[in-house]
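FORM 12-B: Structure-to-Sequence Request
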């Protein structure tokens, strides 16, 4: 598989991962949960040890049991403007992964993205902001293996202050970022930023 370096999607935020239109009819009373703080990384000694990297293999499904996510994955590329493409908004239980980058479980930073909502209501990553440190994320892979990640932090960033290198930068161990929209909602402009989950590989089966 041809691999574009992690820096290829630097300066990209995925504010297109939500419509927010359904909120207009509910007065915003059902806005998705947001992380309590944007600086929630644990001390290094608190993190579970990393598992050995897995051979490259495309992911086919993501499961996050604590927030009841169980969704197929499609490959995502870059748009003509160089931003990360997004899954079709009309399928509320579909997420995507950046298929020109690192495959989840291999050494580096793998990227998974999905909508927080669509025009009908909550979508696949609606509850992403409710995840907590230590939660498990499982990704089924095409080779039959399952890569198991442990959440290190859940952070929210405003679009104008999105830390590209922190989110998309290269890693020396297998890491995962799961991204959706968040950061507050405005009827005039939609969601103001992104929720980002930081996780690293802690097992496989």
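FORM 12-B RESPONSE
SEQUENCE OUT:
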């Amino acid at each position: 598989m041809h691999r574009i370096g992690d820096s290829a999607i630097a300066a990209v935020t995925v504010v297109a991962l939500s419509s927010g239109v359904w909120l207009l009819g509910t007065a915003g009373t059902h806005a998705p949960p947001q992380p309590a703080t944007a600086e929630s990384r644990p001390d290094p000694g608190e993190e579970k040890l990393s598992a050995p990297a897995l051979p490259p293999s495309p992911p086919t499904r993501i499961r996050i049991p604590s927030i009841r996510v169980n969704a197929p994955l499609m490959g995502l590329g870059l748009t003509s403007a160089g931003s990360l493409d997004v899954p079709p908004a009309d399928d509320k239980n579909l997420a995507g992964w950046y298929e020109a980058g690192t495959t989840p479980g291999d050494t580096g930073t793998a990227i998974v993205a999905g909508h927080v909502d669509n025009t009908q209501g909550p979508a696949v990553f609606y509850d992403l902001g409710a995840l907590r440190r230590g939660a498990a994320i499982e990704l089924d892979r095409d080779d039959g293996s399952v890569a198991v990640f442990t959440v290190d932090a859940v952070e929210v960033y405003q679009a104008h202050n999105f830390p590209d290198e922190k989110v998309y930068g290269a890693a020396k161990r297998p890491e995962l970022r799961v991204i959706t929209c968040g950061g507050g909602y405005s009827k005039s402009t939609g969601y103001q930023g992104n929720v980002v989950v930081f996780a690293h590989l802690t097992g496989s089966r």
